[in-house]
Write a structure and sequence with these properties.
Helicase, Ruva Protein, domain 3; 2 domains; elongated; Rossmann fold; 9 strands
């Protein structure tokens, strides 16, 4: 209760209120905050980025640990607040930002209590880089977190599962209930930790196009779904590729493990 009271006092002091347009639900639970900070500290990093610092639930703790994050914030009121505190703040939408402009150092880390409306797009975009972004500790709506970690042949398993697990090792950090935020959202949340798999560096955005086609119609056979994304010569080779990969003709997208999707991608697009 004291944490919520302190947050309300800070909102009054800064003369701002949570803005629905920015998806602002401020984290107030010391238990969840501690688990996020611990997850950051046990991951080696040379550069630290935080999206949406808000009123500083994570930022203040990072500063206490002698870590000085670079901040990405869209709310002008909060941009001015953190700049006045002497922090490097990029006034930008994290989804529209050219991340290469950040010139991240090797082993960089991203931490955020993400606005839910940008979470899935952000993860997919970061799969493709920057490659120096090696670690992430991010908050998600629990349903999205379950999709990110879902296993094949489950209803949650889909494009997001394959993308995340192909490019990153993903693990659960903590769960958060609505009461852990102010104002409380209507859904539960989950924090996940990500560690980049460097063996996926050579996968191009065409991998995402392959997954979009494969999962476009989940109940259709994968062979049929792929007809729109491969050229005619490759289309004629699909039965041969299926045999090489030991896939049944009736295989559906949800049956393939992430590593099988990578093997399929290479068979389709890395042919001599």
């Amino acid at each position: 209760m004291s944490e919520v009271f302190d947050l309300k006092a800070r909102l009054t002091e800064m003369r701002i209120q949570p803005k629905k347009a920015f998806g602002q639900n401020f984290l107030v639970s010391p238990q969840v905050i501690n688990k996020i900070i611990e997850a950051v500290l046990r991951r080696p990093h040379t550069d630290l980025i935080e999206i949406g610092p808000g009123l500083g639930a994570l930022t203040e703790r990072l500063l206490e640990k002698n870590l000085k994050p670079r901040l990405i914030e869209l709310d002008r009121d909060l941009v001015e607040h953190w700049r006045a505190r002497g922090l490097d703040v990029l006034d930008h939408d994290a989804l529209k930002l050219n991340w290469d402009d950040l010139q991240l150092k090797p082993d960089s880390l991203l931490v955020s209590n993400l606005p839910y409306q940008i979470s899935t797009h952000l993860v997919v975009d970061r799969c493709f880089g920057p490659q120096n972004l090696q670690h992430m500790v991010l908050m998600f709506q629990k349903e999205v977190a379950q999709r990110l970690t879902a296993q094949p042949r489950t209803k949650e398993y889909g494009l997001l599962s394959v993308m995340a697990q192909t490019y990153f090792k993903v693990e659960k950090v903590a769960d958060a209930s609505p009461k852990d935020f102010y104002p409380p959202p209507k859904i539960a949340s989950r924090v996940l930790g990500f560690e980049r798999k460097n063996e996926a560096r050579d996968l191009s955005p065409r991998f995402l196009s392959l997954l979009k086609a494969g999962f476009a119609f989940r109940r259709k056979f994968l062979l049929k779904n792929l007809k729109g994304v491969v050229d005619k010569p490759t289309l004629e080779l699909l039965p041969e590729i299926w045999a090489q990969l030991k896939l049944k003709p009736q295989a559906r997208a949800e049956e393939l493990k992430p590593e099988q999707w990578v093997t399929l991608y290479r068979a389709l697009y890395d042919r001599n």
